[in-house]
diguanylate cyclase (Kushneria aurantia), 654 residues
Amino acid sequence: MAIDSYRITGAALAMTTLLAPGGAAIATNAASSLTMALLILLSVSTLLGWWLNGRAGMPLRVMAAMPAALALAVLVLLTLSFLLPVERFDYDFWSSLFAHWPIDTPFYIQRPALPLLLAMLLLALLQFPPGRGGASGALLIVLSLILTVVYLINESNQLLHEHSSAFYALLPALLLLLAIEAHQRRQLLHNRAVQLALAPPLAVLLLVLLLWENFSEQHIQRLSQVAAIESETLTTRLHREVAIFNDAIHRFANGWDSTGTEPDTRQWQHRAAALVGDFYYLRDIAWISWRSHHIERFYPVTRWPNATNQQWLADKAFDALDNESPSDSAATTLTQRLSNRRLMLYRPVVDLDNGRQLGAIAFAVSPTLLLESVFQPLYSNDFLVRVTFDDQLIYRLETADGLSSLRRCSPLMLADSRFTMCIEATYARLFIERHSTPSNMLLVGLIIAWLLYMLTWYYLGLRNRFSGVQYRNHQLRNRVRDEDARRRKAEWGAHHDALTGLLNRRGFGEWVALNGLKPPLTLMVIDIDHFKQVNDRLGHTVGDDYLRRVTDTLNALIVKRGGLLARYGGEEFIACLPDTDIVEAETIGEVLRHRIEAMALPHHKRRGVVTVSIGMVTARREGEHLEALFSLADQALYRAKQQGRNRVDRWHWH
Ligand SMILES: Nc1nc2c(ncn2[C@@H]2O[C@H](COP(=O)(O)OP(=O)(O)OP(=O)(O)O)[C@@H](O)[C@H]2O)c(=O)[nH]1
């Protein structure tokens, strides 16, 4: 029994899907649950087909293909979501279409990565006989492997990495299928038709890969530029906000610079509340006294730090103040990072009259809230923003369908702390860009290559069949023509004399029956004299030759006179001369006799040359019988022979 490669691959696919280390991860990862479901459908279909192969009738085998058909329908839909124009079928359209999917994750996360999608699509197509045109199966697998490898070497592609466990399940199946195909099709690849059909798609493939390489580079650059502009906008906005905030805290501290006294409780509460009201990312404000080296005032009082913290805050503040040169101290805001959750800013307060330091004001800022207050109003669907400090996530601005394939990171300075801001294109952004994504071009190119192969293959098949039909038609036409020629030859042979080409007795009889013997008409019987002697002395070959030459001479004149000559038997001819009376006929007879004599065909008899005797009769009325007239002409001939031959005689009507 022939190996059914597709069924075996189905088994491999099922095994790897279920047993691959990534299998469990896929099953629990909601992002890949659709991929997993599709892989299971394909596996079930191929396994069922394998099990039923040869055992069941058509209806059951069709049922076995049903899971593959279902998977194919979903895969086609998903492929369309990459290819259909975004103006007509936008993000919301596809999201609403997949809204009823039982798993509660957005459509974009459900969608398998493009290469995985194509590989599954091609595998699903292989479940159906029309997908197996010639080396089509092998080509499909090669195409999906190319796409897979191309994606694997493309490190920047996070879409793939997200689904890589599914890939590990699919890859062994594809490789196995390729090995079986290569084994089974070794003969096929030597086939000229297959080579011809493979040439155009392979050329398209090469072109697409070259274009893809180029296009990929451009696409990444373009997206990178867009991300850089986005990053620039956010940074500028952030710096502007920080400048405004700095300005405000300077003004806040300046109030106590000028009074030269430590803040009293009422004043402190009032002004601190106003400042915090303006900047909600400003979480706490503390007054640290130079005199007591302790925190004397705090806002809001509900979050008053414990004693240990107080001391620590104060020490930090005075460390910072000690490092400041006295001339700068009034103008500069001192900053120090307290933790990744809080950014501390210190501002010394000095008595302007005597330059004595009164203390410092500490401002605790939440970087997360600061970033939120700046970035939230600038929120766009196109990019998500992540800010990290020492690899810890500080802030994240994104929609539910987050992650994408492009990330651009740059340093972000907040006070004297260095944060990292990463901008990533979102799925929504890629959705808008989907027409220009290199993957789409690759997908379309590969599908075109495969379609081209199928078209060329079927065209070549049709052409072969057509030329077969043409050949059979040609043979048939030749047979009909030969048959016709044979029939016409037989017909001709029945009415003609083969030696001279004249009508024979039968042919002549039919001619007369058709045309009638209408007077005036003369019937002539012409006989070669002593012809037997020619045969006897000179041989039959010469006799035949004499017969032909005599025929030519007689026929030339008789036809010229509108008559008809036939060979009536042996060396005897009969001529019918319409519209010729006996007088004219006798003249013609004489001319004929003379011409034959003048041919001077050697004869041993008295005269030394071949001669003819002619007997003739004229029809008197219409409807005369040929045989009767012939008999009369023959009697005249007989008389001519009797009278010495080389003569013309006629029947005399009484
Ligand atoms: N070579 C050749 N001889 C033929 C053909 N048909 C008939 N003959 C010969 O024609 C001869 C006719 O001979 P006869 O009927 O005795 O008459 P003849 O010798 O012509 O003598 P007369 O008619 O009395 O002058 C025979 O010897 C036939 O064999 C033919 O097609 N080819």
